[in-house]
Amino acid sequence: MSLIQETDFGTPKSKSETMVTLTIDGNQITVPEGTSIMRAAMEAGTQIPKLCATDMVDAFGSCRLCLVEIEGRAGTPASCTTPVMPGLVVHTQSERLKKLRKGVMELYISDHPLDCLTCAANGDCELQDMAGAVGLRDVRYGYEGQNHVFAESHGCENDNWMPKDESNPYFTYDPSKCIVCSRCVRACEEVQGTFALTISGRGFDSRVSPGMNESFLGSECVSCGACVQACPTATLTEKSVIEIGQPEHSVVTTCAYCGVGCAFKAEMRGEEVVRMVPWKDGKANRGHSCVKGRFAWGYTTHKERILKPMIRERIEDPWQEVSWDEALNFAAAKFKGIQQKYGRDAVGGITSSRCTNEETYLVQKLIRAGFGNNNVDTCARVCHSPTGYGLSQTFGTSAGTQDFDSVEDTDVVLIIGANPASAHPVFASRLKKRLRQGARLIVIDPRRTEMVESPHVKALHLPLMPGTNVAVLTALAHVIVTEGLVDEAFVRERCDWSEFQDWAAFVADSKHSPEATAIMTGVDPKVLREAARIYATGGNGAIYYGLGVTEHSQGSTTVIAIANLAMATGNIGRPGVGVNPLRGQNNVQGSCDMGSFPHELPGYRHIAGDAVREQFEAMWNVKLNNEPGLRIPNMFDAAIEGSFMGLYVQGEDILQSDPNTKHVVAALSAMECVIVHDLFLNETANYAHVFLPGSTFLEKDGTFTNAERRIQRVRKVMTPLNGYADWEVTIMLGKAMGFEMNYTHPSEIMDEIAALTPTFAGVSYARLDELGSVQWPCNEKAPEGTPVMHIGGFVRGKGKFILTEYIATDERTGPRYPLLLTTGRILSQYNVGAQTRRTENVVWHAEDRLEIHPHDAEQRGVRDGDWVRLASRAGETTLRAEITDRVAPGVVYTTFHHPDTQANVITTDFSDWATNCPEYKVTAVQISPSNGPSDWQKAYDEQARHSRRIAAPVVEAAE
Q1: Cβ count within 10 A of residue 14
Q2: Are strands 867-872 and 876-883 parallel, antiparallel or unpaired?
Q3: pTM of the predicted model, to two decimals?
Q4: 53 vs 187: CA distance, rounded Å
Q5: Strand partners, 714
Q6: What would the 3-class secondary structure string for 39-72 be?
Q7: Which percentage of the chain shows pLDDT scores above 90?
């Protein structure tokens, strides 16, 4: 293997459909209008020397190295900033150009340290490459080691150069190497959208600077890595490259964090990862990344990772390390014994939204065909199950309608219950770029999120009270209907007209007006009316939503209300519009696709359907139960009742992530055998009897499906440290239970999925390798996938309008619990933090904090940084307070990334009426000063420490 080389064309690709023909170095070339001469030359195979140009950002024209000659024009224009024109005759090489380029390079080299042999960028330095490209052999200007950041001019006496900035845990800033090309500054602005970098100083004192000469860690930098990727020298360098050296081969794979699904080159030395570089051909991320995918992969080799199987009879006992055969036989015997004692339905499993499609498919297959029941569920139950229900009812499919590229054609963006800047940062960067180009933004969120405060973006913010999503959306619909803003032609053609009329009459009722609903929603009626008009009349309107929509008692109703809005305004079925759920985990879409719900086989087909079930029975050679199994909440209730006694959990930490922690503890404690299949001894493992070591995304082959239905390859870059990929472990567990699954490679599993699942019929590893990725449906009708759904008509036939009556949650505030708690995520951490907490990302978020408004804090005598007691009807915990006006009076907010906080001990059992998705986002609480951790936290910590004891291996005496 070797390093996969990506071509840098110098300037972005033109999207014009008008073609232009010109001549470059005697060759006729035809390219789209708006293409730069530099890119046209590169596409023809001629590389013009460059330093400030890169195709990730717009042309800048500052380095003067890419000069060309154009017949009939005076001077030597920069090829990066000069667009092609019909009939141009361009020369990229001449005596004059050679002389000019050498002169430019002399100036750069005279002001640059020549420590190439010991420089971390040696072998990967564009300045070095360009010196060779222009034939520079001598430098006429005196070089004595003093460049523009020489120490004497900055009060440094001990070193020759300004000190390096080592504050960021992942990369180093060496100002002595900066050539002031501004590529990092432009990447921060144009690609990331943070605007954290600038060029400070003048003349020879110029250099890149984070903010007002702050450190990188202390600045607004979000460590996305775009600046490091853009830097042509060693000014910004990954610390892993400095430590290990330059990589020697690379493999393209897919990130295992959020639902954006960024493609990366894993750049390696042997089996050691040197760095993860975003893959420019990745259609989800287009060469960008965030701090998690780019840098937070060190958990793979973390010292706390468990690599050997372990068992124990009781959760009070220490763990015993055993062989794989012993662990699997122990687990199988336990499950068989439970089924013999309590019945076939007394065991079940939970699939993982972090594992591959193939692994998830095998787990549900093992449960249905091996365990003999349908007691399978997934973490999507507690996050996006209302998406599946709501969109299938209205549109006919259980997934988002667009690809991420669609945002480039959007005119109005409505974000509700999501904060892409924190939870889906790479998509957020693409979105913010479109907003800076003029698209309008409407944010419906109880909190003033980072999207509202983005630089150069003006947002209309509707700060609703938590739990009133349906009322706000119906009020928006009221304005659209009563003001005649409905796209009647679309509705008549694509939707059921009589159902629309019923819906229109419903939302037109005066009780749904912005003025009437304001008393419950807290949203200014004037602002709400303005938002409705903008969405309905502002051009292509796209809705993006997240867990702030689904994790409510009316989660499914809210998804339906969103679909109603999109249909009423004709914003479905073309680029730039649509209804787009932002999935939380890397493969939560895939885990749903693969049949992880107790009532559905892969492809969202009901288990009761005889024809569908018979296809699986024939392929699997087993009779399947036609009755839906237990959902996760039902499993917990049945365990406490004594009828559900065994659980296989792959890659999920249900104790930390599911609501009402005390209830989960009671359920797990009641079970006779809990099998945890994971990387670390997580919180759920505190109550487990079998621990099967898992594998990371770097150690396996497979596929993930992201939030835009994009199926992408995951490729193994190292041998599994535990010995087996997760799909192999599930096969071995099945075999131990007497159910054989014979596969030698995940590609064979995908072939079976394709044979049984109509939306995956055209998917194969060969097709994915050929196209890079595909979006389902991928079949005979769409052999290369379906970027945009519902073009010309809905999958279900006619779009279905459904009435969305607002019903207030049973979780109410009162004298004892007067505040409303809502929860969310932060950029640097991921979900329950099992991976990111074991990386340097803890520098940015070492603990969960409670955001509270200054008014509420003052009433309770709480100061910034104080310990506070957070109590609800379900339980209590303690954490530090952060006083901020980002939340409204009466609302508090926290994250759930740290197990020592256990935020879910606060959340209740209330859930969505259709899917049992928990109501994480609305919990009545009280806040009071505290001296530190609660008694429950102390007891929990003590139990966790006790449970994680691992007995010393037994050493057999020599004979």
Answers
A1: 18
A2: antiparallel
A3: 0.92
A4: 11
A5: 702
A6: HHHHHCCCCCCCCCCCCCCCCCCCCCCCECEECC
A7: 70
Nearest partner of 855 among 879, 882, 888, judged by Cα: 888
* CA within 13 Å, CB half, 265: 23
Residue in the block written with tokens 């379900």: 874
Work out the pLDDT band at 151, boundaries 50, 70, 90.
very low
Residue 792, amino acid: G
Give the model confidence (pLDDT) of 899-924 as tens digits.
777 777 778 778 777 777 777 788 89
Q: What does the block give as tokens for 666?
A: 């009671």
Query: Using CA of residue 873, residue 874, residue 879, residue 881, what is the dihedral sign?
Result: negative
Q: CA-CA-CA-CA torsion for 590, 593, 595, 596, nearest 10 degrees?
A: 40
**CA 739 to chain CA mean position, Å:** 35
Among residues 182, 276, 273, 266, the alpha carbon closest in space to that of 224 is found at 276
pLDDT at 954: 66
Alpha-carbon distance 21 to 17, whole Å? 13
**DSSP 8-state class, residue 776:** S
CA dist 217 and 905 (Å) reads 33
> Who contacts 912 (Cβ-Cβ below 8 Å, separation ≥6)?
385, 386, 550, 552, 553, 554, 555, 556, 918, 919
Helix (H) or strand (E) holding 505: helix 497-508
Q: pLDDT tens digits for 824-867?
A: 888 888 877 788 888 888 888 888 899 999 999 999 999 999 99
Question: Token match 């959760």: residue?
Answer: 315
Q: Are 850 and 893 spatial neighbours (Cβ–Cβ below 8 Å)?
A: yes
Residue 70: beta bridge partners?
Answer: 90
Pairing of strands 347-351, 646-650: parallel
Q: List 929's β-bridge partners, or say none.
A: 868
Q: 635 with 667: CB under 8 angstroms? A: yes
User: What DSSP string runs through 771-796?
Assistant: HSEEES--SSS-TT--SS--SSSBTT
Q: Which 3 state secondary structure label does DSSP give 247?
A: coil
**Structure letter (DSSP) for residue 406:** G
3-state secondary structure of 796: coil
Strands 27-32 and 19-24: antiparallel
Q: What is the mean pLDDT of residues 596-602?
A: 92
Kind of pairing between the strands at 673-678 and 690-693: parallel
Distance CA 440, CA 421 (A): 17
**Which one-letter amino acid corresponds to residue 204?**
F
Strands 197-200, 207-210: pairing kind: antiparallel
Distance between CA atoms of 691 and 674, rounded to whole angstroms? Answer: 9
| pLDDT of amino acid 487 | 95
Place of tokens 């409905």: 486
Helix/strand/coil (H/E/C) assignment for every residue in 95-127: HHHHHHHHHHHHHHHHCCCCCHHHCCCCCCCHH
223 exposure class (CB count in 10 Å sphere: 0-12, 13-18, 19+): buried
3-state secondary structure 336-363: HHHHHHHCHHHEEEEECCCCCHHHHHHH
Contact 355, 587 (CB under 8 A): yes
Contact assessment for residue 577 and residue 571, using Cβ atoms and an 8 Å cutoff: yes
> Could you report the per-residue pLDDT of 397-456, keeping only the tens digit for each?
888 899 999 999 999 999 999 999 988 999 999 999 999 999 999 999 998 988 888 888
Residues 272, 123: Cα–Cα separation, whole Å? 19
Distance CA 299, CA 302 (A): 5
Write out the two tokens for 297: 């992969």
Q: Where are the beta strands (DSSP E) in 528-653?
A: 541-545, 578-581, 600-601, 605-606, 646-650
Q: Calculate ∠ Cα 76-77-78, nearest 5°.
A: 125
The answer to whether 25 touches 90, Cβ cutoff 8 Å, is yes
Residues 797/780, Cβ–Cβ less than 8 Å: no
19-24: strand order across its sheet:
27-32, 19-24, 89-91, 69-70
Residue 199: enclosing H or E segment and its boundaries? Answer: strand 197-200
